[in-house]
C-alpha cells in the first residue's frame, strides 16, 4: 500500500468560506496547502482522534477531529475514494473512518451539543448542521433566547450573519440554561475582548496602510491599533506572514504584516498592515510581565527589558507572539545597489522586492505573489519611452500584474534573478509585424544571446521611424532620440551615414569618435543642404492633407470624454495612463474595429495625397512658365538699354575726344570681367552707365 495519498482540487471549510487547495495524507499526518494564500495546515498523525466520511453539497467530505478539540473539514472527494481512504486510515492512523450522514428531515427542534470548537445541532443521533465557534463574532442573550452573530465572509456573495436559538426554561434551580449556553459559546468564540493589561505599547507609529499614526497595544492573543479615527483589533491567528524590508534610501524600513481575513473599514479591506520606521529611532522597552512569565511564555526569544532600534523591537515582539518567521530580501541586488526596484503599479509609484520565494510590492496597493502561483513572467517594452520596460506576472488563476516604468539598467539584474529561480519567461510582441514564436528562457545560460534585448532595439528603431514620419514639421529643428540599447559604434555609423538628418548638436557629440577632424569637416560640408531642408519645411503648404491617426488615437478621441466623466478631476497625465491601461485590456475583437477605421483613414489620406500631388504639379508648372516669361522680358529690356548706351557713347566720343582721353572711363566689358563683383552689382553699374550717358548725347544734339 502507498505511503502517501494526494488529492487535487480539495476544498477546506475555513470560517464559512471554501478554500481550494491540495491535500496530502502521509504516515506522519495530514497536510493541506491553500492555493489562494499559500498557508499550510499540518495535522500530526498522533493528534488525530476521529475521522468522519459524509455526503455534502460538493460530493463527499472528510471531517477530522483532533485530541485538543480542533475540527478540520475537507470537501470535494468522489464516492469511489472512500475505500482507499478507509484502508489508509486503518493502516497508518489506526482509526476507523466512520460513515455518518446529515439529517435532512427539516425539523427545527433538537439538541445542541458542544464538542471542542464546534456547536452541533442534532436530531436524535444525526447532526442537522454544525457551527464552528471561531466564526462567531458576538453572542447576546435575551429572555429564553441566545443570538449568535458571525464574521462577514468577503469571498461569498451571500453571508449568514445571525442565528437565534430558543432555549426553553428548565425546572433546575440555580442554573440559567440561557447563560450556560452563552458561556459555552463565548469560551470558544472569536470575540476579542481587551481584558487585562497590554504586554507592551508602541506609541505614535507611522502606518501607511491603513494610513495614519496609531498606538499599537500588544495583548497575548491579539494586537490593538488605536488611532484618532479608527480602532482595529487583529487576532494573531489571522497573521499569515511578516516582512521586514529596507527602503531604497537606506534610511527607512518597512514592516509588513500579511492578514487573512483582512481588517475592514466600511467597504474597504486591508490585506496588509504596513508600518514605516526610521533607522535612527531607538527605544527602551519593558514588558508588562515578570521575568519568570517572560521566560516561560517566550522561551528566551524575549526578555523583560530590551533596547534597540524601534523597528527591531516591533519585529522581534511580533515574531515571538505570532510565532512566524520574518521574511527579508534575499541575494537580489539592483543596478543602484538596493535590494528593490523602483516601478509603478496601477498609476502609483512604489518598490518591488524580489524575495527568495516570491515578489512583494509596497505600498499602494500592496501585492504579494508567491513563485508557486506564477504561471509565467514577461518583459515588455515600455509604452511611453524606450528608456524603461514593463515587468508582467501572470498567475495560474489568470490574474495579471504589470509593474511599469522600470529603468533599463535593471533589466539584466532582474532577468538573471528570474532565470535563476527557474520561472517561465514569455515575451509577447507589441506589433503585428513583429510576432515571433515565444521562447522559454527558463534553462538559458547567462552568456547566451539575449533575444529579447535585440528585439527591443528593433522595436525602438521602428518606433523612432514612425515618430519621424508622423511629425507635422512645425519649422523647429527636432533632435533625434538616442536609443540607450545601442552601442556608441552603432550611433556613430548612423550619424555618419545620415549627417543631414542629425541634430545641430552634432559637434558636441562628435568628440566621442576618435576621428574628430574628418567628422567635423563632413558636418561643415553638409550644413547647406540642411538649411535648404529646413527652409522647405518652413514653407509647408497649409492646404496639404493631414496625416491619418492611429487606431489608438481614434479610440482615445472617441472615449476621452467618457473617461473624464468616469474619473472626475483626473489630470492629463493620469488620463493618458488610464487610457493606455484600458486600451491594453481591450479584447482583440474590439481593437480590430478601430484598426479597420485607421486603415480606412489611411486609404483616404493616400487618395487625397495623390490628388494634392497632381494639383501641386500643375501649379508648379504654371509658376515655372511665369518665371521664364519674366526672365525673357528682363533680358529684352536689358538689351534695349545696352543698345541705347552704346549709340550715345559712340556719338560723344566722336565729338569730344579730348574729354574722353582725360577721364578714366570703364566700359561694361571691363566691369563684367571683375571676378569679385556680384551679379547684382553688374546690373546696377550697367544701368547707371546707361543713364549717365544720356545727358551728354542730349547736349550734343542741342549744340
From TrEMBL:
Gene Ontology terms: cellular component: FACT complex; nucleolus
Name the UniProt record assigns to this protein: FACT complex subunit SSRP1
Location of region: Disordered: 458-551, 609-703
Biased amino acid composition, Basic residues: 517-531
Keywords: Chromosome, DNA damage, DNA repair, DNA replication, DNA-binding, Nucleus, Transcription, Transcription regulation
GO molecular function: DNA binding; histone binding; nucleosome binding
InterPro entries: HMG_box_dom, HMG_box_dom_sf, PH-like_dom_sf, RTT106/SPT16-like_middle_dom, RTT106/SSRP1_HistChap/FACT, SSRP1-like_PH1, SSRP1/POB3, SSRP1/POB3_N
Origin species: Eurystomus gularis
GO biological processes: DNA repair; DNA replication; regulation of chromatin organization
Subcellular localization: Nucleus, Nucleolus; Nucleus; Chromosome
UniProt biased composition (Low complexity): 497-507, 647-656
Acidic residues biased stretches: 474-496
Similarity annotation: Belongs to the SSRP1 family.
Amino acid at each position: 500500500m502507498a505511503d502517501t495519498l494526494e488529492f487535487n482540487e480539495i476544498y477546506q471549510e475555513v470560517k464559512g468560506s471554501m478554500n481550494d487547495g491540495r491535500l496530502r495524507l502521509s504516515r506522519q499526518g495530514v497536510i493541506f496547502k491553500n492555493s489562494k494564500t499559500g498557508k499550510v495546515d499540518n495535522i500530526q498523525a498522533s493528534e488525530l482522534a476521529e475521522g468522519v466520511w459524509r455526503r455534502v453539497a460538493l460530493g463527499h467530505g472528510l471531517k477530522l477531529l483532533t485530541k485538543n478539540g480542533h475540527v478540520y473539514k475537507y470537501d470535494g472527494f468522489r464516492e469511489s475514494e472512500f475505500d482507499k481512504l478507509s484502508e489508509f486510515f486503518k493502516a497508518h492512523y489506526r482509526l476507523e473512518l466512520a460513515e455518518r450522514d446529515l439529517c435532512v428531515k427539516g425539523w427545527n427542534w433538537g439538541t445542541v451539543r458542544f464538542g471542542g470548537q464546534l456547536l452541533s445541532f442534532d436530531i436524535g443521533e444525526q447532526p442537522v448542521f454544525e457551527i464552528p465557534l471561531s466564526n462567531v463574532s458576538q453572542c447576546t442573550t435575551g429572555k429564553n433566547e441566545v443570538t449568535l452573530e458571525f464574521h462577514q465572509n468577503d469571498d461569498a456573495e451571500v453571508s449568514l450573519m445571525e442565528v437565534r436559538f430558543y432555549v426553553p426554561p428548565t425546572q433546575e434551580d440555580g442554573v440559567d440554561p440561557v447563560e450556560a449556553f452563552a458561556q459555552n459559546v463565548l469560551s470558544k468564540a472569536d470575540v476579542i475582548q481587551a481584558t487585562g493589561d497590554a504586554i507592551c505599547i508602541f506609541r505614535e507609529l507611522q502606518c501607511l496602510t491603513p494610513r495614519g499614526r496609531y498606538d499599537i497595544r500588544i495583548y497575548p492573543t491579539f494586537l490593538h491599533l488605536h488611532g484618532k479615527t479608527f480602532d482595529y483589533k487583529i487576532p494573531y491567528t489571522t497573521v499569515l506572514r511578516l516582512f521586514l524590508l529596507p527602503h531604497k534610501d537606506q534610511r527607512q524600513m518597512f514592516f509588513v504584516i500579511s492578514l487573512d481575513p483582512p481588517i475592514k473599514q466600511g467597504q474597504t479591506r486591508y490585506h496588509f498592515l504596513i508600518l514605516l520606521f526610521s533607522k535612527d529611532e531607538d527605544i527602551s522597552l519593558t514588558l508588562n510581565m515578570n521575568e519568570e512569565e517572560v521566560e516561560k511564555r517566550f522561551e528566551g526569544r524575549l526578555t523583560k527589558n530590551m533596547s534597540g532600534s524601534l523597528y527591531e523591537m516591533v519585529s522581534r515582539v511580533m515574531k515571538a507572539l505570532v510565532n512566524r518567521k520574518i521574511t527579508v530580501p534575499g541575494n537580489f541586488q539592483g543596478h543602484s545597489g538596493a535590494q528593490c526596484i523602483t516601478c509603478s503599479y496601477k498609476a502609483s509609484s512604489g518598490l518591488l522586492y524580489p524575495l527568495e520565494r516570491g515578489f512583494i510590492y509596497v505600498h499602494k496597493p500592496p501585492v504579494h505573489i508567491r513563485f508557486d502561483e506564477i504561471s509565467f513572467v514577461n518583459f515588455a517594452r515600455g509604452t511611453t519611452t524606450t528608456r524603461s520596460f514593463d515587468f508582467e506576472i501572470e498567475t495560474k488563476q489568470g490574474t495579471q500584474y504589470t509593474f511599469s516604468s522600470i529603468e533599463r539598467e535593471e533589466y539584466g539584474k532582474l532577468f538573471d534573478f528570474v532565470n535563476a529561480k527557474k520561472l517561465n519567461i514569455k515575451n509577447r510582441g507589441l506589433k503585428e509585424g513583429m510576432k515571433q514564436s515565444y521562447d522559454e528562457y527558463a534553462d538559458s545560460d547567462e552568456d547566451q544571446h539575449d533575444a529579447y534585448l535585440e528585439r527591443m532595439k528593433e522595436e525602438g528603431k521602428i518606433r523612432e521611424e514612425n515618430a519621424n514620419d508622423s511629425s507635422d514639421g512645425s519649422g523647429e529643428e527636432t533632435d533625434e532620440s538616442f536609443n540607450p540599447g545601442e552601442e556608441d559604434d552603432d550611433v556613430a555609423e548612423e550619424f555618419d551615414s545620415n549627417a543631414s538628418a542629425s541634430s545641430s548638436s552634432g559637434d558636441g557629440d562628435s568628440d566621442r569618435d576618435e576621428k574628430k577632424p574628418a567628422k567635423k569637416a563632413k558636418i561643415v560640408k553638409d550644413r547647406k543642404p540642411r538649411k535648404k531642408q529646413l527652409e522647405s519645411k518652413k514653407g509647408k503648404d497649409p492646404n496639404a492633407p493631414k496625416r491619418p491617426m492611429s487606431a489608438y488615437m481614434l479610440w482615445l478621441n472617441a472615449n476621452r470624454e467618457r473617461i473624464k466623466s468616469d474619473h472626475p478631476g483626473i489630470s492629463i497625465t493620469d488620463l493618458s495612463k488610464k487610457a493606455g491601461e484600458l486600451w491594453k485590456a481591450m479584447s482583440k475583437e474590439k481593437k480590430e474595429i478601430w484598426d479597420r477605421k485607421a486603415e480606412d483613414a489611411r486609404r483616404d489620406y493616400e487618395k487625397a495625397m495623390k490628388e494634392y500631388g497632381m494639383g501641386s504639379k500643375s501649379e508648379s508648372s504654371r509658376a515655372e512658365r511665369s518665371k521664364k516669361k519674366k526672365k525673357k522680358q528682363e533680358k529684352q529690356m536689358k538689351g534695349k538699354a545696352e543698345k541705347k548706351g552704346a549709340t550715345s557713347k559712340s556719338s560723344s566720343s566722336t565729338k569730344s575726344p579730348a574729354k574722353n582721353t582725360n577721364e578714366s572711363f570703364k566700359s561694361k566689358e571691363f566691369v563684367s570681367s571683375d571676378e569679385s563683383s556680384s551679379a547684382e552689382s553688374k546690373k546696377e553699374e550697367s544701368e547707371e552707365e546707361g543713364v549717365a550717358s544720356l545727358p551728354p548725347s542730349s547736349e550734343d544734339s542741342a549744340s
